[in-house]
Design goal:
The chain has about 210 residues and is α/β, with parallel strands linked by helices. The chain is about 40% helix and about 15% strand.
Length: about 210
């Protein structure tokens, strides 16, 4: 497993793989990997010659009062999980590598990004689609894997791919849940036991 931090180096690797006739699968993440991510990696490995996991806490999808600074970044644990799951490459760029000084260009899927979660997180999905488009350009995948837990995000990315004629297949995989029904999420670490029990009511009610 290799860790790549430079976009041009990642592109060079992807082009070499393509010339060799190898398919590339990408699992985009913000790190703090868990069993949900592991399930995506396994699906990716099953259907592609090469598996890339991107780990990048994307600053432009966080609002001013959100948890960017305290979002978990356990890169050692993440690397161990990727090694265990036999990932070929981790793409782990710095923020300044992804967004150069004076960055001005964004991808915005209108209407879909302003409803539901987007209604209370202004600009969030614009940040998501922009970084995902940049990850596509860096890693050049044939297939990309997302969890159904983030349903609105998956729909928006599918629409972006369709509207912009991006040559990638978007695979939306089943939600992985903890015992009791709570969907596995990196932010579950914020929950104390009382709030965790409260959150389980959602899946039980559904």
């Amino acid at each position: 497993m290799r860790v790549i931090r430079n976009i041009r180096q990642m592109q060079k690797i992807a082009r070499t793989l393509q010339r060799a006739g190898k398919t590339i699968g990408l699992v985009p993440t913000m790190g703090a990997l868990h069993e949900g991510h592991a399930s995506l990696i396994r699906a990716c490995r099953k259907n592609n010659d090469t598996t890339i996991v991107s780990i990048f806490v994307n600053p432009i999808q966080f609002g001013p009062s959100e948890d960017f600074n305290r979002y978990p970044r356990p890169i050692g644990q993440d690397s161990s999980l990727c090694m265990k799951e036999r990932v070929d490459f981790i793409f782990h760029p710095a923020a300044q590598e992804m967004y150069s000084a004076g960055f001005k260009t964004y991808v915005d899927v209108q209407e879909l990004g302003t409803r539901l979660c987007g209604a209370s997180r202004q600009g969030h999905f614009r940040g998501v689609t922009t970084v995902v488009a940049k990850l596509f350009n860096a890693c050049m995948p044939d297939r990309v894997y997302f969890g159904r837990k983030d349903a609105q995000q998956a729909l928006i990315i599918q629409r972006m791919v369709k509207d912009l004629n991006i040559p990638v297949s978007v695979k939306v995989m089943p939600t992985v849940r903890e015992k009791g029904g709570l969907a596995v999420s990196s932010r579950n670490a914020y929950l104390d036991e009382g709030r965790r029990n409260d959150a389980r009511v959602i899946s039980q009610s559904l």
